[in-house]
Each structure stands twice: as C-alpha cells, then as structure tokens.
TrEMBL record:
Name of the protein in question: Methylthioribose-1-phosphate isomerase
Species for this entry: Methylobacillus rhizosphaerae
GO BP annotations, alphabetical order: L-methionine salvage from methylthioadenosine
Enzyme class: isomerase
Function: Catalyzes the interconversion of methylthioribose-1-phosphate (MTR-1-P) into methylthioribulose-1-phosphate (MTRu-1-P). Also catalyzes the interconversion of 5-deoxyribose 1-phosphate and 5-deoxyribulose 1-phosphate. Part of a bifunctional DHAP-shunt salvage pathway for SAM by-products.
Pfam family, one: IF-2B
Catalytic site positions: D248 (proton donor)
Site for Transition state stabilizer, residues: C168
UniProt record similarity statement: Belongs to the EIF-2B alpha/beta/delta subunits family. MtnA subfamily.
Amino acid sequence: MKIGKQSWRTIWAGQPASGSMLPQQVCIIDQTGLPHQFRVVEIDSVRQMAEAIRNMQVRGAPLIGAAAAYGMALASLESDDEKHLQESARLLLASRPTAVNLRWALERMLERLLPVSPHLRCEYAWREAGCIADEDVVINHAIGQQGLNLLRELARGKSRRLNILTHCNAGWLATVDWGTALAPVYAAFDAGMDVHVWVDETRPRNQGASLTAWELAQHGIPFTVICDNAGGHLMQHGQVDCVIVGADRVTRTGDVCNKIGTYLKALAAFDNQIPFYVAVPTPTIDWRIESGVRDIPIEERDPREVTTISGLADDGTVRTLSLTPAGSMAANPAFDVTPARLVTGIITEHGCVTPNDLIRIHQEMKE
C-alpha cells in the first residue's frame, strides 16, 4: 500500500552487509508511533524481534506470523545450531499467545530448517521468511477480491453509498500488505464503488482510531471514527450495511477470536439482521481446536493500557495521561470470542464460506 506516493510493506529484509549475500537485519514500521510519528525500526536479533511482537511494534495475526519467520532468520545468523533454533522458536512463541499465525509460521520455519545441513540453514531461513511474507501479500489481495464480490452484492439496488463497520485494525498495517478485513474495502474503492467505513476506536489501545483511520486516510477512503459503543445505535438506524472484522484465530467450527469488543458487535449485528463477516487467511484457522471460548488462550495485557491514554498535545509532543483515579484496579483482556452462530460468513483467499462449511472442509482435509 502507499504512504503518500511511496509504496510500503510493514516488514522487509534489510540490505546485506558488505561481503555478505544475506541480510543482517529486518526493517519494520513501528506501529506504536502511529498516527503521529512514522518511523522505521531495524531489528537486529531474535530477542529484539520477540520484544517488537510483545510490545506491538508489529501487530495483527498475519504480520505477527511474518515477523516470527523473520525472527527465525535473525536467529540463524546468531547460530545454525538446532538447539538455538528451537530455543528461538520458543522465545518467539511466548511473545503473544492468542494469534495462531505465530505458531504456524514457527512450525513451518522449523520444518524447513531442521532437516537441512546446518551450513545451509541461514540461507534457507531468509528465503523461507521471504516466501511467507510474499505469500501473505498474495493471499490478502485474494481476500480483497473475494470480499469485493460480497460488497457488490450488498450494494446492488442501493442508491446511496455502502456503509461498512469494522473493529480494531485489520488493514495493511496488520499484515505484510493489503490487510484482511479492509482488503475488500480497498478493492471496492479502487473499483469505483461508493463506500464509507465506520471505524470503531477500539479501546484500550485505540487501533481503530489511530491505525485504521490513518491508513484509510492515506488511501483516500471516506471514514468516520466512532466510539466503541456507537455501533449498535447505527445499526438500529439503518446506517450499517455490513460488519467486516479480522481475527487472530478461528476454530475449525467457526468460532472467531478477535480484538475485545468484537463479540458485542456481532450480537448487535445479529439482532439487527446485518451481515457479519470475518476476513482471514487460511493460516489463521486453527484446525486443532473446536471451542473458541474453551480452547483459545486470551492474552491479558498491562492494566495501564486501560488506565492511561497517549495522544498528541498542543505543543506537538506525544504524551501519556491518566484516565482513572490513582490506584484504580483495571482488567485488560485483549480478545474475545464470537460464537460461530453469529457469523454470516468467513472470507478467505479461496472464497466466502459459512462456519458449517469449515467443518466440512476440515473433514475433507482429514480424508
């Protein structure tokens, strides 16, 4: 996607050092600075990559997977020993517990690296990490095209713009490029459709107000930021045509784990007969688990994310301010689970399927 007139990805391999054919670092867009500060950070070690994932300099399930793959490439620079690679994979896996793409990417990297001779592992690691990143771009572009067909159907017969509500950030910043939930929106806008996005602020980290709003503005797509509790009201008054969200994990039965607050949007959409779609690449589907509420670990983040807020002050500095009385207790579950019964469809790179279709597809895979 583009910032101004320049094309960017969220993560990429750095330039090879003098006398080497392989990169020595990984470059990321530091998302903790957006929307007020755009900065690129160079990651030089597997520990630094694990920390970047943990503190959400990189975030979003597909991007976390790509970052973990590049983290393993950095680990291979440090040592091509099997023990070191296994330990590095455990370090990265522990950085965030909910997004299944993290585990998927690490398992893929180890399956690729461990069978080959140690002296080849570093070269293979950079190559495989690059493949994972490139595949993510292709997959997410395909999700956009599949979702475009749905949006065209929803717009058929309407004489006004199509209003789409989204929660958190599932645009290109959450992936290597294109995004998941926003990929259909980009495809629709680029195809000339009249679309508008209701952007949930998404407390407590405000990924909607800061990240989704920022990238939609970069692309020129009309949007309106709303507080998290406004969505149901808009649905009741016919101002939402569909909801599209991303996910950090989808079970084989179609339960959807996404940013906290998604469940409430799904309930409101169900009550108002509004389609609720989830856009995910297939690596986000966890075929090993059945019940989202029972089986998906929900990350508990720092309570200070709830009790404080950061923003741009009048003097141009970014400041962190307290919201609550001193000593207030706060709970901060980062995700919730939307049951499959509330999901209209799951948009993947292969098409849109119902949760029941996932069960059938999983059975066919096993056969």
